[in-house]
Amino acid sequence: MNIVLIGYMGSGKSLLGSGLSSSLKLNYLDLDDYIENQEKKSISKIFKDQGEIYFRKKESLYLKEVLESHQNTIISLGGGTPCFAGNIEIITNKETVKSVYLQTSLEELTKRLFTERDKRPLIAHLETLDQLKDFIRKHLFERSFYYNQADYKVTTDQKNVAQIVEECKVALF
User: Is 119 helix (H, G, I), strand (E, B) or coil?
Assistant: First the structure.
C-alpha cells in the first residue's frame, strides 16, 4: 500500500510525509525531490527553462513511475499534481493507493507562503499579502474539485505535525 498526500503548496505535505513515514515505519518519497533528481535540476529551473507544460508532462510520467515502482511508501505530491494530466484518476483508480487531502485554510496558506515566495515558482512574482491571498483563493477554487476526490480529508489549521499524523493514522487505519 502507498499513501499519497495531496493539497495546496504550503499545506504541510512534505513535513507531514516525513512524520507519517517515521510513525508508520514506511518509506517516504517527495515527488518534487524525485523529479529534481531525475531531471538533474530544480523545479524552479525546470519551470524557467522548459515551462510549466513540460514540467506537468514530466510530473505525470514520474508519478506513474513512482506508483508502479514503490510499495509501502508515503508519497507527497506537488500542489498541482492531482489537477493535471488525469493524475487524480491515476491516484484514485489505483487499488494499492490511499490518498489524503491536507486541507488548509486560505488565511493559513497565505501566512505560511508569504515568506517562501522566492522558493516557489508559481508565486515568486507576487509582492503583497493581498496579491498572494487572491492568487491562492483562485487556485483553491480551481483545485478543490481534484483535492476533494482524495479518499480522506484532514484539516491542518491550528495543529502540529504530531496531531496531524495521528489524525491521518485514524483515517487510514
Answer: helix
DSSP state of 71: -
What are the grid coordinates assigned to 138, written together?
483562485
Closest C-alpha among 24, 29, 117 to residue 66: 29
Q: Which residues contact 56 (CB under 8 A, 6 or more apart)?
A: 80, 84, 85
| Rg of the chain in Å (alpha carbons) | 15
In Å, what is the CA distance from 163 to each residue of 25, 66, 155? 17, 28, 10
pLDDT tens-digit map of 30-69: 999 999 999 999 988 998 899 989 999 999 999 999 999 9
For residue 122 the three cell numbers come to 508559481
Domain region containing 51: 2-104+148-166
Q: Dihedrals φ, ψ of 103, to 5°?
A: -85, 125
Block residue for cell numbers 507519517: 20
Predicted TM-score (pTM) of this structure: 0.93
CATH number for the domain including 25? 3.40.50.300
